[in-house]
Write a structure and sequence with these properties.
This is Aminotransferase. InterPro entries: Aminotransferase_I/II_large (IPR004839), AspAT/PAT-like (IPR050596), NHTrfase_class1_PyrdxlP-BS (IPR004838), PyrdxlP-dep_Trfase (IPR015424), PyrdxlP-dep_Trfase_major (IPR015421), PyrdxlP-dep_Trfase_small (IPR015422). It is an enzyme of class 2 (transferase). This protein is of the alpha/beta class. It has 2 domains: 6-44 and 288-387, Aspartate Aminotransferase, domain 1, CATH 3.90.1150.10; 47-284, Type I PLP-dependent aspartate aminotransferase-like (Major domain) (Aspartate Aminotransferase, domain 2, 3-Layer(aba) Sandwich). Helices cover 41% and strands 13% of the residues. The protein is built from 13 helices and 12 strands. The chain has helices at residues 6-9, 17-28, 47-58, 71-85, 100-112, 128-135, 155-160, 184-196, 254-267, 273-284, 288-309, 336-347, 373-387; strands at 34-35, 95-98, 118-123, 139-144, 166-172, 200-204, 230-235, 248-251, 324-325, 349-350, 352-353, 365-368. The strands form 3 sheets. The chain has a 7-stranded mixed β-sheet with strand order 2-8-7-6-5-3-4, with helices on both faces. Strands 9-12-11 form a 3-stranded antiparallel β-sheet. α4 runs parallel beside α10. The longest helix is centred in the last third of the chain and has 22 residues, at 288-309. The termini are far apart. The structure holds pyridoxal-5'-phosphate. Pyridoxal-5'-phosphate binds at residues 39, 100-102, 126, 172, 176, 204, 206, 235, 237, 243, 248.
């Protein structure tokens, strides 16, 4: 057998795999599992977007594209970023289309992080950030988020964690796994800290369109002094139900984009040609399907929150973005892994233990409401039945 690289041996397989495998095993044996573990929309990609990709395929758009992506898509992204996010980019050299947001984040981290550099990351957060940073030899530094603050980052805590090795921070709003949305005044404080300490920022805005109540999405790069130091990451997976298409992008100042594009060149060259034509249609075509999806998510979110609020032994912050609810079950005295396992085996709901997202996630469970209302109703009945056993 071959020894694996130190780089890859230093990071584990995702620790939520165990639960996924168990859910699959139970399903094979005939259990009726309710899936609330998966972080992807349950909707199909809108028809007009599929048509555009099909047409591109028929028309022979089957070759490598420019590393940055097809010009039509870069222009559509530039227009979107200007109109919706107040970010002005040059489609020529300030955006690179990639294989999902994930590749864009990977490229950006590898383009800027040297071994030993520290990267500030919200805790809890999407698992991948810390592992991508570690793969690059960097050191992830968790910035704890607290339920008492609605899981909104406290800029003072951010400041306290800065050392002379800090080079970058990764901000995600709307936030996975808590659904929190960073308000403008907090983003302004984060921006002034980034400027004061000369930090580069990755702003992962993948959930921007999934936003509820009167929350507002503000892009960090649109704040004064931030464009030069912010790489905005976005994509098509969540808002357009295109997660399997694997399309995302990084956008920012040309000097930031040069090393990112270099990394992308050696990583994947270019994103899938015909898929990019679908993405053009996603941005330039009707937004009606997106609006409908968001409405449906909102209905489910409200329903779930009402049900969870009425249950014993659980507390939850009202999420105003993404498609997750992140209640605490600390009052049961169980760890989140024990809790998730019991919820799965005793009432057949697959969910993700909060500890998978960082230390601060301990005691919480992430439920995704990207499943039908019918399943959600059934799931909430089962969860309630489960909690009365304590
Ligand atoms: N960023 C966050 C915060 C996510 O939760 C996810 C998917 O779960 C992604 C990025 C991945 O995006 P993509 O499918 O574009 O790679």
């Amino acid at each position: 057998s071959f020894t694996t690289s130190e780089r890859i041996s230093s990071i584990p397989f995702s620790n939520i795999r165990e639960i996924f495998e168990e859910a699959k095993r139970m399903e094979k044996l005939g259990s009726d599992i309710i899936h609330m573990e998966i972080g992807r929309p349950d909707f199909d990609t809108p028809e007009h977007i599929k048509k555009a990709a099909n047409l591109a395929l028929e028309n022979g758009h089957v070759h490598y594209t420019s590393n940055n992506g097809i010009m039509e898509l870069r222009e559509a992204i530039a227009q979107k970023l200007w109109q919706e996010n107040k970010i002005k980019i040059d489609p020529e050299n300030e955006v690179a289309v990639s294989i999902g947001c994930k590749e864009a984040i990977f490229n950006t981290v590898f383009a800027f992080i040297n071994p030993g550099d520290e990267v500030l990351i919200q805790d809890p957060s999407w698992l991948e950030y810390q592992y991508i940073v570690k793969l690059a030899g960097g050191i992830p530094v968790p910035i704890p988020l607290y339920a008492e603050d609605g899981f909104v980052m406290n800029p003072e805590i951010l400041r306290q964690n800065i050392t002379n090795k800090t080079r970058m921070m990764i901000i995600n709003s709307p936030h996975n796994p808590t659904g929190s949305v960073l308000p403008k005044n907090v983003l302004e404080e984060i921006a002034s800290i980034a400027i004061e300490y000369d930090l580069l920022v990755i702003s992962d805005e993948i959930y921007e369109k999934l936003i509820y109540d009167d929350s507002e999405h503000v892009s960090l790069a649109s704040l004064p002094g931030m464009f030069e130091r912010t790489v905005t990451i976005n994509g098509f997976s969540k808002a357009y139900a295109m997660d399997g298409w694997r399309l995302g992008y990084a956008a920012g100042h040309v000097e930031l984009m040069k090393p990112i594009v270099k990394m992308h060149q050696y990583n994947t060259s270019s994103a899938t040609s015909f898929a990019q034509y679908g993405a053009v249609e996603a941005y330039k075509g009707s937004q009606e399907d997106v609006n409908q999806m968001v409405k449906e998510f909102d209905k489910r979110r409200k329903f779930m929150m009402e049900r969870i609020k009425a249950m014993p032994l659980t507390e939850s912050v009202n999420p105003s973005g993404a498609f997750y609810i992140f209640p605490s079950f600390k009052k049961t005295g169980l760890s989140s892994v024990e809790m998730a396992k019991r919820i799965l085996t005793e009432v057949n709901i697959a969910c993700v233990p909060g500890s998978a997202f960082g230390e601060q996630g301990e005691g919480h469970i992430r439920f995704a409401y990207s499943t039908s209302m019918e399943e959600i109703k059934k799931g909430m009945d089962r969860l309630e039945e489960f909690l009365v056993r304590f």
